[in-house]
UniProtKB/TrEMBL annotation:
Identification of the protein by name: AAA+ ATPase domain-containing protein
Domain NB-ARC: start-end pairs: 177-353
Classification via SUPFAM superfamilies: P-loop containing nucleoside triphosphate hydrolases
Keywords: ATP-binding, Nucleotide-binding, Plant defense, Repeat
GO biological process entries: defense response
CDD domains, sorted: RX-CC_like
Organism: Salix brachista
Length: 371
């Protein structure tokens, strides 16, 4: 029963995400990201439901967990139905108001700002519901992790998490030199104004703007490498799984985690490994908005490390940066590259291997289009 409900919700979410108009809804309180987060969490849950439904026959706590999952699934289905209906009504309203001859122009210019949920009350009503449901499903995912369910064999795949690593060829990159210098200074400078010894520095910006690349440049900077005795890179993504992250930290410390299952045991091993050392922990692609999920890890990492240890977080959401512990002065919001930096990057890629005549032709064409 629970599996059928989750499948229905996933189908609804996939249909919503497939519609171009969801981009406009995403302008409201980050709904686009909330929907993708919901989809990822439901996929992670679906992957263990076979084991959960079998174990609920003997374990009351799991039976209660499945009951909570059913409740939130029913509510999610209702909200998505409401959303889909509103999208259809809004599109019909736009089509009725604008002649077909101008509809393409309208879609490309005006719909981005007002196509979907033009009635402000309905727009924020749905946005609040989606965010509230995300908070509930976050709690269900956290509890799921405590049961150590088995993944279904041949079942649905886990959500495709973005996997990143710290390796990069700095010589191939252009731009961000100033931002890199700023972050390096924030990481290696000693606190002089009563800030906590273990600070969190955050890179914030929209997807694809270069947060991960900048973090990689900083991670491999010579000054950073010299300053920190230990450097660890963890790709977090969604869902925020404390046990998986703790294991990744241990692996980054060249410690084995195969014999450890419980989170407490993992955290104790981490404390032993960082005792008396200054470390930099990069947490890439963080989406978690629940501070309680981060507190256990953070508190464990605080104990025993040398002053000057740092967290470097990359995220699309400034709220997440604050939840992870960054003060306003420890947040760098990335903007777009300057025109000169864009041109330098474009030239490096487009002109590689071209002779002088080809380069001149391409350069002239590119500059004309750029104007």
């Amino acid at each position: 029963m629970a599996d059928a409900l989750v499948s229905v919700v996933l189908k609804q979410l996939s249909l919503i995400i497939a519609q171009k108009v969801q981009k406009e809804v995403g302008l409201v309180a980050g709904v686009k990201n909330e929907v993708r987060k919901l989809e990822s969490n439901f996929q992670a849950i679906q992957a263990v439901l076979a084991d959960a439904e079998q174990r609920q026959l003997k374990e009351g706590s799991i039976k209660h967990w499945i009951g909570q999952l059913k409740d939130v699934s029913y509510d999610m289905d209702d909200v998505l139905d409401e959303w889909s209906t509103a999208i259809e009504k809004s599109q019909k309203k736009v089509n009725d108001e604008h002649p077909r001859k101008t509809i393409k122009k309208v879609c490309s210019f005006r719909i981005f700002s007002c196509f979907c949920f033009r009635e402000v009350g309905l727009r924020f009503h749905v946005a609040r519901k989606i965010q509230t449901l995300n908070d509930r499903i976050d709690g269900i995912v956290r509890e799921k992790n405590t049961f150590h369910f088995k993944l279904s064999e041949g079942g649905p795949d886990l959500p495709q998490r973005k996997i990143t690593a710290p390796f990069i060829d700095a010589a191939e990159l252009k731009g961000r030199e100033k931002d890199k210098g700023t972050i390096v200074k924030m990481l290696v400078s000693e606190s002089s104004d009563q800030k906590p010894a273990l600070r969190t520095v955050s890179l914030v910006g929209m997807g694809g703007i270069g947060k991960t690349t900048l973090a990689q440049l900083v991670y491999n900077d010579q000054e950073v490498e010299t300053y920190f005795g230990l450097r660890i890179w963890v790709c977090v993504s969604v869902p925020f799984d404390e046990t998986r992250i703790a294991k990744a930290i241990l692996e980054g410390l060249n410690e084995s985690a195969h014999d450890l299952i419980e989170l407490q045991d993992l955290l104790e091993r981490i404390q032993e490994s960082i005792s008396g050392k200054r470390f930099l922990l990069v947490l890439d692609d963080v989406w978690n908005e629940d501070s309680t999920m981060w507190e256990q890890l953070k508190n464990s990492l605080k104990r025993g490390c040398l002053p000057g240890s740092r967290f470097l977080v990359t995220t699309r959401n400034k709220k997440v940066a604050s939840i992870m512990g960054s003060s306003s002065t420890d947040i760098l919001e990335l903007g777009l590259l300057s025109p000169d930096e864009c041109w330098s990057l474009f030239s490096q890629r487009a002109f590689f291997g071209k002779d002088s005549r080809e380069r001149e032709n391409l350069e002239e064409t590119a500059q004309q289009h750029g104007e």
